[in-house]
Specification:
Layout (H helix, E strand, L loop, with lengths): L2 H31 L8 E6 L5 E6 L6 H31 L11 H23 L5 H18 L14 H36 L10 H4 L3 H35 L7 H23 L4 H24 L21
């Protein structure tokens, strides 16, 4: 295959995986629609010694549980298929360049890679933490982000610029993408924590409430713990990416380790916010609402560093190679 054919294949694979992600979203929406109501214990007459009967509280078997499980399995299977197709899109994108290169030389490619890492991280933790409740959030996020990526950030395949011709680019970007995926998953858990906490406060004392998705979310302490663990995993990786690998790459590319470039400043701000989050958890015992808010502030700085800096400060940044190309024309899929 030629380089142009690989580029067409990559574009087609992106379109195909978006369709499959859409089907996965529908499957997960059907999954949680099937469990709209929370089953309440009921009293059942049970025969005891002496032939007498007595009421015993038993948990009824939810009729919709089987349907929920079926739709859930379909959704996860579709997500696995979509992730595989997206991987093909990434590989093809790298093979489309002349010479062949890593597929993360601009915002379009970084977003494509970042969303794939979010999905892979979610699938890797799915069984360990029972993340079926996170499925509609992850698939919807990835689908919407891919749509924005194709419509606004698409850039035709071009060779890497001289500043990017370094093995430290690979190390720096891989670490940044992994950390971004972990922080994004943790941010989703923190956001769900705040939503469920508010929902529980609103329905406090209402034994007949119909909960659906929010009622079936894990307990608040479980959401808080999962959010903390994912952030704790991503922080040292982000530290390495932003404060070690990044400066080393900058030294090889521009002859200096740190130049207070807008993107470098916001990468440091992101590091400070997440460091404050973890420090407060470890020393001041911050948990729950306060920790979730700080985590979401960190996520906002992370994505502003990725998107906002390029849009608002791109012309004054040495990272301007990552800007989207507004004149680029998407090739026919």
């Amino acid at each position: 295959m030629t380089h142009d054919q690989f580029e067409v294949l990559s574009n087609q694979a992106v379109a195909a995986c978006a369709v499959v992600y859409f089907l996965a979203v529908l499957a997960h929406l059907a999954q949680w629609a099937a469990g709209r109501k929370v089953s309440e214990p009921v009293a059942e007459q049970v025969t005891v010694g002496g032939g007498e009967s007595a009421p015993v509280a038993v948990e009824p078997v939810a009729e919709d549980d089987a349907r929920m499980e079926m739709f859930g399995r379909i959704g996860v299977a579709l997500t696995v298929v979509a992730a595989f197709i997206q991987f093909i899109a990434l590989v093809s994108r790298g093979l489309a360049a002349d010479p062949v290169r890593v597929p993360w030389g601009n915002m379009y490619e970084f977003t494509l890679m970042g969303t794939w890492v979010v999905v892979v991280g979610y699938l890797a933790l799915y069984r360990r933490f029972g993340l079926s409740w996170l499925s509609p959030v992850v698939t919807s996020f990835v689908l919407v982000t891919l749509m924005i990526d194709v419509m606004l950030l698409y850039t035709p395949v071009v060779p890497l610029r001289d500043a990017l011709q370094s093995p430290w680019l690979v190390i720096h970007v891989v670490a940044a993408i992994i950390a971004t995926g972990a922080f994004t998953l943790g941010g989703m858990c923190s956001a769900l924590f705040l939503v469920k906490q508010r929902w529980e406060e609103k329905h406090a004392g209402d034994a007949t409430r119909s909960g659906g998705y929010l009622a079936r979310l894990p307990k608040l302490e479980v959401l808080d713990r999962i959010a903390y663990r994912t952030h704790a995993f991503g922080f040292p990786i982000w530290t390495f990416a932003a404060l070690i690998a990044g400066p080393i790459w900058a030294h090889y590319a521009w002859g200096r380790y740190w130049g207070w470039d807008p993107k470098e400043i916001w990468a440091f701000i992101t590091w400070v916010v997440y460091a404050a989050y973890l420090h407060a958890r470890a020393t001041a015992g911050w948990k729950g609402r306060s920790a979730a808010i700080v985590a979401l502030v960190g996520l906002a700085t992370l994505w502003f560093n990725f998107v906002g800096i390029n849009f608002f400060f791109g012309s004054g940044s040495q990272h301007s190679y990552a800007e989207p190309q507004p004149t680029a024309v998407v090739r026919t899929l």
